[in-house]
Amino acid sequence: MNEVRALGRRDGWLVLALALAARGAVVLWAHGRFPPTADGSYYHLLGRRLAEGQGYTWAWPDGAVTFAAHYPVGYPAALALPYAIFGASPTVAMALNAILGACGCLAVQQVLARYGGRRAARAGGLLAALHPGLLAYTPALMTEGVAAALLACGAWAVTAARARWASVGTRSRTGWLTVVSVGALVGIATLVRPQCMLLAP
């Protein structure tokens, strides 16, 4: 059993490395080519304002500043920390998307390792790592790819919680911590993309 877990972890590192490399290549290619557009321009602006300590606010052409309530708060908030550290650049947002997307690929592999076996897990993880649609969302300052990664991580947390409860029971503190992590991930995903609330039950 320990050998199977070790192989699953090794496959997970492989999937994570490949997903990061592929997304890193996309970021290098897209750097400077694709400015934020459509909703991405609003997420970028709101993330920059949050990073500057101006809150979730909107600056209107007449100089008025009001609180914003027309875009989800999660993605701009996720952008704010790296923007504050590295500067409010679309490339920084792309790098964040790449990291979160790679974590989502690892989550896919880990869920499949628990329920589908090593071959299915490796194949599923590699497909997620190299999926053209998921790669294409890396340079887009949009919520779709980030929400997908968060939901994959939420599914991974669900499988971990289920396994933990099966082994230690419902009275264990670590059992409850895994359940709380599921709620936190689905909650964050909902702040990024409100439709994710449908998956909470």
How would you sum up this structure, described in words?
The protein is mostly helical and 201 residues long. It has helices at residues 2-30, 39-51, 74-86, 90-115, 118-130, 132-136, 144-168, 173-192, and strands spanning 57-59, 65-67. The protein contains 8 helices and 2 strands; from the N terminus they run ααββαααααα. Strands 1-2 form a two-stranded antiparallel sheet. Helix 4 packs antiparallel against helix 5. The mean pLDDT is 87.
Described by strand count, sense and barrel closure, the largest sheet is:
2 strands, antiparallel
Q: Give the ordered list of helices and strands.
A: HHEEHHHHHH
Q: Provide mean pLDDT, rounded.
A: 87
Q: Cα-atom Rg, whole angstroms?
A: 19 Å
- Number of alpha- plus pi-helical segments: 8
What is the structural class? mainly alpha
Quote the distance from N terminus to C terminus.
32 Å
Strand runs, count: 2
The unreliable regions are none
Record the strand order, biggest sheet. Answer: 1-2
Q: How helix-rich are the residues, as a percent range?
A: over 70%
Shape: globular
DSSP strand (E) fraction?
under 5%
